[in-house]
Specification:
Layout (H helix, E strand, L loop, with lengths): L6 H26 L5 E5 L5 E5 L5 H8 L4 E5 L5 E4 L1 H6 L4 H4 L13 H11 L4 E9 L2 E14 L2 E10 L1 H59 L6 H29 L8 E4 H11 L1 H7 L2 E4 L4 E4 L1 H17 L8 E7 L3 H5 L7 E8 L31 H11 L3 E6 L5 E8 L6
Parallel strand pairs: 9-11
Antiparallel strand pairs: 1-2, 3-4, 3-7, 5-6, 6-7, 8-10, 11-12, 12-14, 13-14
Helix pairs in contact: 6-7, 10-12
Length: about 425
């Protein structure tokens, strides 16, 4: 019976075992990272034997072990001589089973011909292709990059495999989303076309009965002035007034819908000539209201003449319409290139002109600066101020079609200012 070991002996033996384990771990790490290419081992017969390791260059080994891609080294028979841990994770097999395997066994049937072609040509030139590898019951799409290496044992083929699963999923999602967007755009185009057709037909069909209502209501009022009671006269005036507003609304809706369909024809014109024409058109209205329109120098720019004239008409008529009671309307139209207010609104003035409309009218609360350009938006009662609520929406749409911007600056009771920026020249795509 052997004598039990003392505590000191057990501690010493444990320390020796720990040193041996640490030395073994260091040796394994040195082999894995390529710091060691050969080992001298003492056998049981006290003879020393030299063991060489199948290695690539040390730098290569360290590099591919840290890669996020799978890395494989093949011999001329397509046998796996080495692979990194990322590749073994990709195919869900331990390293011990991967080394020594024919790489072709990991290629699905529909990719074998492509793999054989790349493997054959890879010994002569670097090449890349996309193919799949088998991982359990599934397949992984990969970018397959091959190049030759000169190892201690001779020439080998280095294969780098980049997992394209996420990229393919993103591509599929983008393709699906693009298809959906294309379908939605097609539906919107059809819907817009139908709406435009409806607006045009409805506006045309509505105008005829409305015209008759206006004609006969006016005839009834004028021919029976002495026969109608005061109450009947009031009713007739309301019919005529409502019909007139309806007519104006129909015309504005038709105008707004046509802005989406008309092909723009741009010509270089003088904005000052446009204003002069409008002043002549508004001669009676200006005389009735005593309005003063001051026009500074305005530039010549490339625009759709009819549309820009409508913009100026809408803004000038609004300034006259929304004047203060008992006060003469004063409207000033200026042209500029570097207006402080425009810069504050974030408008790029490079290659553009800026036109400012300023009036001394009733103004509006600045919280409506953007809302005022919405379709059918009215800030005042229709009983006090006539209009369809579409004029400024039409104005903004025209400016948008000219690749410009329009902003409103106002305070209630202090007048309004409209600032327009337009390109000097239109670049038609």
């Amino acid at each position: 019976m052997s004598t039990p070991k003392t505590y000191e002996q057990l501690v010493k033996e444990n320390q020796e075992l720990l040193l041996q384990l640490e030395e073994a771990n260091e040796t394994i790490e040195a082999i894995r990272t390529g710091q060691v290419d050969a080992l001298v081992v003492k056998g049981s017969d006290n003879e020393h034997q030299l063991y060489t390791l199948k290695t690539a260059d040390q730098t290569y080994r360290v590099f591919i072990e840290k890669m996020n891609e799978g890395a494989v080294t093949l011999n001329e028979d397509g046998i796996i001589l080495y692979c990194n841990t990322m590749f073994s994770s990709m195919i869900n097999l331990p390293l011990s089973k991967v080394v020594g395997m024919r790489f072709e066994l990991l290629i699905p049937d529909d990719c074998k011909e492509l793999y054989q072609d790349v493997f054959r040509n890879g010994w002569h030139k670097d090449s890349k292709t996309e193919l799949s590898i088998i991982s359990g019951d599934s397949q992984i799409p990969c970018l397959f990059s091959v190049t030759t290496l000169q190892l201690d044992e001779g020439k080998a083929l280095s294969v780098i495999l980049t997992d394209l699963t996420f990229q393919k999923e993103v591509q599929a999602l983008l393709k699906e989303n693009n298809k959906r967007l294309e379908d939605i755009n097609n539906e919107l185009e059809i819907s817009n076309h139908d709406l435009q057709q409806f607006a045009s037909i409805a506006s045309h069909d509505l105008q005829e009965p409305l015209r008759k209502i206006l004609i006969f209501s006016t005839m009834l009022r004028d021919r029976n002035k002495n026969l109608l009671s005061e109450e009947s006269k009031v009713f007739l005036e309301k019919i005529i007034s409502s019909s007139s507003r309806m007519k104006s609304l129909i015309v504005d809706i038709l105008t707004y819908s046509r802005l989406s369909t008309h092909t723009n024809r741009f010509t270089v014109i003088s904005l000052k000539d446009i204003v002069r024409e409008i002043i002549e058109d508004f001669e009676v209205l200006i005389e009735e209201t005593g309005a003063i329109i001051q026009v500074d120098d305005l530039p010549e720019i490339e625009v759709n003449r009819g549309q820009i004239k409508q913009v100026f008409q809408n803004l000038i008529s609004n300034s006259i319409k929304f004047c203060k009671a008992g006060q003469q309307p004063v409207i000033r139209i200026t042209g500029c290139y570097n207006d402080d207010v425009i810069e504050q609104e974030g408008i790029d003035t490079n290659g553009t002109c800026c036109i400012t409309f300023t009036d001394n009218g009733i103004g509006f609360d600045d919280k409506y600066n953007e809302k005022i350009f919405s379709l059918f938006e009215r800030l005042n009662s229709k009983d006090k101020f006539e209009g369809s609520g579409i004029g400024l929406a039409i104005t903004k749409k025209i400016i948008d079609k000219h690749k410009g911007k329009i902003v409103a600056v106002s305070r209630e009771g202090e007048g309004a200012q409209f600032l327009i920026t337009l390109p000097l020249r239109q670049n038609i795509d």
